[in-house]
Hints:
- By secondary structure, the chain is an alpha/beta fold.
- Helices cover 32% and strands 24% of the residues.
- The termini are far apart.
Amino acid sequence: xxEKNSEQPNVPxxxxxxxxxxxxxxxxxxxxxxxxxxGDITCVLGDNGAGKSTLIKIIAGLHQHxxxxxxxxxxxxxxxxxxxxxNRGIATVYQDLAVVPLMPVWRNxxxxxxxxxxxxxxxRLDVDFMRRTTHAExxxxxxxxxxxDQPIGTLxxxxxxxxxxxxxxxxxxxxxxxxxxxxxxxxxxSGVVLKYVAAARDAGLGVVLITxxxxxxxxxxxxxxxxxxxxxxxxxxxxxISLDELTRQxxxxxxxxxxxxxxxxxxxxxHLGGPDAA
Length: 278
Ligand SMILES: Nc1ncnc2c1ncn2[C@@H]1O[C@H](COP(=O)(O)OP(=O)(O)OP(=O)(O)O)[C@@H](O)[C@H]1O
Ligand SMILES: [Mg+2]
């Protein structure tokens, strides 16, 4: 639990209850509920088109919900825009990270919030401070970058995700929303990113982790929300569900069992050397 929240220990950082969202006639979300607590990781799992991105766009202030309630630190809210969300401590890391690939790592770390020194005509960017701080903050998250002057485009996808997470922590986010941070990564890099997701949680942030991958979710998650075609079909605390069951539900549960049955029984087609092959 974070110290800031200790005065009101029972108030969630973010709470959605019965939230729906329509795009014209398309029902993108219906009756979805989710709670984000300080020091907790809530995972949102679902297949393509399930409504995951729509859900986080509401939390990030990009879209507004059409029905239900959305409270930030206990206060009913409709966020006007992403800046509004940021001001309330909600930082979102999108899959296509908004970075400037040719700029140094430290420049990207402070992008839009550059500290200055001196005043009047002598005012200039405090480059030294930015270099030192970027290195120190990344080190605090366990990333020992040899050279913070290297262009951020030269970092791996996983390292870039980590820089984005470290940045959100440094700038005082209370809620960190991550849209499929491991989707494009291999096994090892996914592990590194998940470590920093856990580090953000240990720093007291409330984390919302969106993923297709039940294994990744189960490695770090405290709570799991399952979405299908815009509706919630499961909401489980970690001690209520096993990895096997989570995987089964994600894979379509009984639908997958039926498919396995069919595949087992179907004779191999001719061109694959089935019984009719010459
Ligand atoms: N701007 C939009 N206008 C109309 N329909 C939309 C819009 N954005 C999303 N949708 C529809 O809403 C539904 C949910 O989309 P969403 O992007 O939230 O799914 P997702 O779970 O993030 O999928 P993916 O895993 O493919 O990213 C889909 O049917 C999608 O086609
Ligand atoms: Mg999406």
